[in-house]
Structure prediction request, 233 residues.
Amino acid sequence: MTAPVCLISGVGPGTGSALARRFAEGGYRVALLARSEERLAALEKELSNARGYRCDVSDPGQVDAAASAVERDLGSPAVVVHNAVGGAFGTFQEIDSQVLNRNFQVNTMGLLYVARRFAPAMVAAGKGAFVATGNTSALRGKAGFAGFAPTKAAQRILAEAMARDLGPKGVHVAYIVVDAVIDLEWTRKRWPKRPDDFFIKPAAIADEIWHVAHQPRSAWSFNVELRPFGESW
Prediction:
């Protein structure tokens, strides 16, 4: 039997790379979408069953081209994880409106472009899973997150609309809210005095997404929240 395909958009050094490793370990052929050719090449070298495709998900033409290449090289994905993210800090008076729009194009429109491209094949097959990664900003608009939170809230609502549409057709859509600081090189530098258990591990996020993507049809989740045990919420 041919191994199933998982497509991951926004493959960065944290969650995206951890997802690639988790699904590769689980027997999937993994299609990696990112803007960094260097990162894609490194993961291709590390994972024998992964293949990278340079793609900016805010550009529907690039999404369509990458999707066609994935289908040609690997086949239609059984699982799609939209992990691409654009973010910026600042109050509503401080933010650059163009930056806010750019983040909306990546976070919300990118989800739309990727979903529209791959959902029809899943519906035709009567199965599949589509997971979008989000964070606390999808649920609340704190003052300093005005350049980011509106786009993640819109992303979550779009994912919910997708779930209500695609669920009855056999396709599972879920939204993962990561209420935590992800353990990355730059976050460690920003919070140098925080203990290890302050950070959420990318591999732990990937494990939960794997679980959600493989839930039985009788017990599908949509909104899933992840946070360290000591997180105040």
The chain has a mean pLDDT of 94. The radius of gyration is 17 Å.
